[in-house]
Each structure stands twice: as C-alpha cells, then as structure tokens.
Design a protein that fits this description.
alpha+beta
C-alpha cells in the first residue's frame, strides 16, 4: 500500500472514530500546508482539507462541527438605554366601510 493510500485510510478511520464517539459530526480535516500541497487533495469524504501551519508534517487533526459553531461570528457588547414597554392601550381601530354600505 502506498503512502497516499495509508494517509487516506488513517484519516478515514479517524473520521469514523470521531463520528461514532461524538454527537457532532466531523467538519473538516486540518493538515500541515506542505502535506496539503503534496497530497493535492481538497477534501476527504466530503470534508474540506484546511491547511494548518500549527500541525507538523505527517500529522492531521479532525475538527468537530461543535468547535466551529459561531467560529466566524463576531461578538460585540450592546450598549443602550433600557426601555419600558407597557400594555397596549385600548384604542378603537377604524373599520373600513365599503361604498354604499352603512
């Protein structure tokens, strides 16, 4: 078995292991940018391959979809003045009258 096939098998087993032990599915596979370029893969089993310079060559990481929830959301603190909301007043609502009817 070649190196590429061994990589695919190891990553595929890791995806299966993650998905069988976590209620959240795997979302992406991270690998060293050199490895991503060398393999030339864009995805594995439908999961995108994301270059991650923090990982050494020959290593990969399965990223859980739970870890990605809100990853691109920017949190800001809302600043404002509290507003009191009262019960709606009982104002009669005019009913349109058709021409020729009273």
């Amino acid at each position: 078995m070649g190196a590429e096939a061994k990589n695919l098998e190891a990553i595929s087993k890791a995806i299966d292991q993650h998905n069988s032990s976590c209620p959240f599915p795997a979302a992406e596979v991270r690998m060293n940018p050199f490895e991503v370029e060398r393999l030339g893969w864009e995805e594995i089993r439908g999961l995108p391959i994301v270059p991650d310079p923090e990982l050494g060559t020959g290593r990969f990481r399965i990223v859980c979809s739970r870890d990605l929830d809100g990853a691109e959301l920017e949190e800001t603190e809302a600043i404002g003045t509290p507003v009191e909301v009262g019960a709606p007043s009982e104002v009669p609502v005019p009913v349109p009258v058709e021409p020729g009817r009273n």
